[in-house]
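User: I'm new to structure prediction. If I give you an amino acid sequence, what do you actually give back? Let's try with this one:
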Amino acid sequence: MFTEEETFKVQSPESVDPERTNPHAMWVTAKIADVGSSSPIVARTLIMAHDMLRSRIPLSDDQKIKNVLLLMHKIKNNLLQCSHSSATYIEAEKEQAEVFANTVQGGSTRAYANFPVVPDIESTVTNFLISARRIITDVCQIPVHFLDTKQTHSSLDYLLDKELVPRLGNEHRMVIWFKEKADSIKRIIAFRNGQEHGATTKGATLVIENFALLPTNEVHVPLWYLDGQSPTSIAEEMPIMVEALVDSRKRC
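Assistant: Good question. You get back a string of structure tokens that encode the predicted 3D arrangement of the chain. For your 252 residues, that looks like this:
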């Protein structure tokens, strides 16, 4: 159950006591999140799930409806996790950097006071990329419920090449849109692979840098990049990735 600002898990007496052993079994309402229907992620996921179920699945097919709802629920939760890990957290540190960049202690030793740092930056990036990768995997599972595909796929490339293009053709709007978003999706996957497997495979390793002082006495913001590629701002790129993931559901 959703309010504008909160999410609750509601259990009926039948779900608490399916065998009906206690005629006085109680309802249970538990708050599970400080985000509700005012969140674009929550609202858009619920609206899309409603539209898919109303237009694509016979209402009598209870199991398929349940499977789609559970899948969309997982995607929504991981999107919220990505959103929480992204810009707001690091942008606050970026603002501090701009303040502290001009704060130099006096005396014979010149030093920046309270130099900014993102605590546990590796964990923040890891949580973001794990959730983002899960979203991609789950989005690739959606078409199986509507197109009667031969099998499920966790890879967008395989989904396109093995299922969507042969069935829908290269000119179908879903195929065109997914191909347009392929670079953004591949970058997320490459970052996650570079973080998880970079040290053990031939692929590039993901490098994560916290705030750092440059020789010019300027402060550079947290950066990430695959080894050998140009660095980009984490705070700037994470929201772009989140938006790409939110949009990736619309065409399924």
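You can read the tokens as a compact description of the fold. Here is one thing that stands out. The chain is about 55% helix and 10% strand.
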